[in-house]
Amino acid sequence: MQIYIQWKNPxxxxxxxxxxxxxEQLGWFVSDRLDKSAWVAVPEGESxxxxxxxxxxxxxxxxxxxxxxxxTAFCRDEDAPPQEAEFAPKDRTPWLDxxxxxxxQSVQEEVFARQGIFLRKLPWPExxxxxxxxxxxxxxTRAYGPKTLLRFLLEGRLKELERGIARMGxxxxxxxxxxxxxxxxRDLGWKATFFFLARAREDWSYRYNVRxxxxxxxxxxxxxGGHEIGLHSSKYAFExxxxxxxxxAVLEAVLGRPVAGVRQHFLRLRFPEAWERFAREEFRYDASxxxxxxxxxRAGTSFPFQPPMKSRKNFWEIPFALMDYPWISGKSPExxxxxxxxxxxxxxxxxxxxQLLWHPSNLAEAVFRPSWNRLMEWAEGKSFYQNHLEGxxxxxEARQQVRLVEQRIEARWAVFVLESxxxxxxxxxxxxxxxxxxxxxxxxxxxxxxxxVYRLMIPRLPSGRFTLTVEF
Length: 472
Ligand SMILES: [Zn+2]
What we know:
The protein has four domains: 3-121, no CATH class; 127-141 and 176-395, Glycoside hydrolase/deacetylase (TIM Barrel, Alpha-Beta Barrel); 142-171; 402-471, Mu homology domain, subdomain B (Immunoglobulin-like). It has 13 helices and 22 strands. It has helices at residues 14-26, 62-72, 95-115, 146-154, 158-167, 178-188, 213-224, 241-255, 273-280, 324-327, 333-350, 369-380, 389-401; strands at residues 3-7, 39-43, 57-59, 118-121, 131-138, 193-196, 201-202, 205-206, 228-233, 261-264, 285-286, 316-317, 322-323, 353-358, 385-386, 403-409, 413-420, 424-432, 438-440, 445-450, 453-461, 464-471. Bound molecules: zinc ion (ZN). The site of zinc ion has 5 residues, from loops.
């Protein structure tokens, strides 16, 4: 099979990997057959050979490809505070996902017109329309440190000093918000990812000692609650591989298990080097691709993706679109909320993944709390797939390996044979067909979501082969 791409600069070798990524994202059953040789480059403006089936053409303008090269493949590096004038509304759009959607529309229409049926994988378990995940960078765990208390003393704020001493470093400290979070998550059935620093001291600040009894107990509780622990690599870890390695080892020794994910403190790192460095230390994914000072999609996508790598293939980026600080920086709480709502709508419209980065200590801050509370209200009215980052990635990889090994389409019926390396829960497909179809397969649920569009849910896809018969 060959797919023809029309673009301006045929030497751009990133295009095949990008297209493979989009194809996987869309859930088409072609990804395993796509390799570099499957792509044929045709310069912009030149017409394609007449023999090329129209469903195999992806037209990207030269400008779009420039953007792809500049931003997508490398997770854009400029992350300075935006000047009002240069603030780009495009940052807030997962434009790459939108492009994929457009491609999906045109290809599906063509294929459907020809064969009367079209099957693809849905992105999230049980056919949920988008995914929502929360990750926490654990920077501060006490509001009252020695420095704060000294300041209270010097400034004669004795009442505060007294209160601070009483609460310092204990369960009463307002920044120790873990019990609240754990309770909320327990009630909602949510799983979150907590990134912990594994270096207590850095420059002039003391953070916390992840090896202490208190933190060991906390980590045990979080794991018991089904949450994920990742490494929040310290300030200088990006340029010091030995430091990064040591921090990972410290956290793994405390947990007694390998750590899959990493996020760099202050997002103080550069792409694409960061991916190579993290992969070298055997992390499975990074979650640092997002903006420090604004909301939006730093890589143009809301989906997890495999960055182009020299060293190792199986490494992922799980981008975030929202961090608490830029989120609440609207001119009013209402404006901040509208900013969130806009990002959430964008993700929903492409069926992507919404990741919120939230610092646990901010739960105690009056300027942040209303946003958190409103988020909880928003979540109540929504139906989405929720998991911690590693769980979400496990799903994404499992879904990716499900392949179509056989397809027979006749005038009135079609047979699709799927194959999976292991059994998978909540696997869902979308079938475009004519009105009135009949699908047969073991333990399969069928639902018409729009005229001629069917959601097929397989509560438990078995390992090995699975046959789907459609009468239409
Ligand atoms: Zn941090």
